Amino acid sequence: MPPRDELDHLKIIEELQSTLKKTQRKLATKEAAREELVEAVYRAAREAALAVKTPKPVIAKRDRRSKKAEVALIHATDWQLGKKTTSYSVETCAERIDLFASKVLRITEIQRQDHPVREAVLMLGGDMVEGLGIFESQLYEVEAYLFEQLFETSRIIEKLVRTLAANFETVRVICEFGNHGRIGKFGTMPRGDNFDRMAYKIAQDRTTDLGISWQMSEEFFQHFTIGKYRALLVHGDEIRSFGGTPIFAIIKKFTGWAAGITPEWDEAFMGHYHTPLSLTIPNGARVFVTGSPESGNVYAAEQLAAQGRPSQRLHFVDPEAGITTAEFVLWLD
Fold first, then answer.
1. pLDDT averaged over the chain?
2. What average pLDDT does range 15-31 have in this prediction?
3. Which among 194, 223, 192, 221 has a CA at the least distance from the CA of 121?
4. What's the pTM value of the predicted model, to 2 decimals?
5. Domains of the chain
6. What is the dihedral of CA 278, 170, 222, 322, to 10 degrees?
7. 269-299 burial string, b = 16+ CB within 10 Å, else e?
8. pLDDT, tens only, 82-91
9. Relative to the CA of 236, which of 105, 192, 218, 274 has its CA 20 to 30 Å away?
């Protein structure tokens, strides 16, 4: 390259580098401002929650029968609190989760007529909040903004956890976060900065008096055991699809995960698609898709030709045999 051309080339490189540095500084400032805003909202919701008087814990009555016990496995997911439709609101969500809790307890009492059910494992599957700016083109309105979404979601989770703690001798909470809880569009912020996760942390801080365990990891899945029973919890947005529940994509994805990507599991749970479903993958393991308490989703009806009936899920597990003994879809309308 001639000397003059080389100098011109170096000048262009210097100008590009200077422009890149300026752009990076602007982006860093923008990201810092966004992170500060999110932190402020979280801190305000957390402090407001912690300022509320903590209810006196109710101790569950001990079941001293020697007969083999089972465990209640509860899947609560896709509340999307903050969404407003013709038949769903923050108030509706709270009412339906109360109904869900009462149905869990009624069915548990039926089970207890035959054998002890001392432990409850609550899976929180993600999309507990509606979030903001996730899908700007969706037609429904957002009723509650970030502060109220965080505060109300953590309050309802706390109430559910306290209800379980008053009726089961042992309670465990397994937490997974969803795509609606992410901050901004996909890839804008780290996956771990998630409003679902913040709501879980507020609820955890509010229930330290109960002495229950909370599991929450950075992985895209949560793996846990109940005796010999092995379970996998994911949100479900890892399965990319548009237009209804992608049955074959779910089978393919979980078959791949079961081939060594995740720890070994007997049954897996997911939400995201708002329609209850059960599938068996080629190795014999089962996958359960759990519904949502929401209803009246105009976007889903018009764009996806899909409309789920409000529901959540309850199973009972034999920890010694490592199997599910009963499974229920609990309708909430």
1. 86
2. 53
3. 223
4. 0.86
5. 52-331 (3.60.21.10)
6. -50
7. bbbbbbbbeebebeeebbbbbbbbbbbbbee
8. 888 889 999 9
9. 105
Task: Dig out the tokens for 320 from the structure.
Answer: 């010694």
State the Cα–Cα distance between residues 104 and 93, nearest whole angstrom.
16
Asked whether 268 and 285 are in contact (CB, 8 A), the reply is: yes
> What are the CA-CA distances from residue 131 to residues 147, 159, 253, 273 (Å)?
10, 21, 26, 17
> What is the edge-to-edge ordering of all strands in the sheet holding 170-175?
213-216, 170-175, 117-124, 70-76, 311-318, 323-331
Confidence (pLDDT) at 107: 98
Comparing CA positions, the residue from 253, 248, 213 lying closest to residue 235 is: 253
Q: How far apart are alpha carbons 203 and 197 in whole angstroms?
A: 10
Q: What is the pLDDT of residue 304?
A: 44
What's the pLDDT tens digit per position in 253-275?
A: 999 999 999 999 999 999 999 99
pLDDT: is 136 or 106 the higher one?
Answer: 106
Which class for 215: exposed (0-12), middle (13-18), buried (19 or more C-beta within 10 A)?
middle
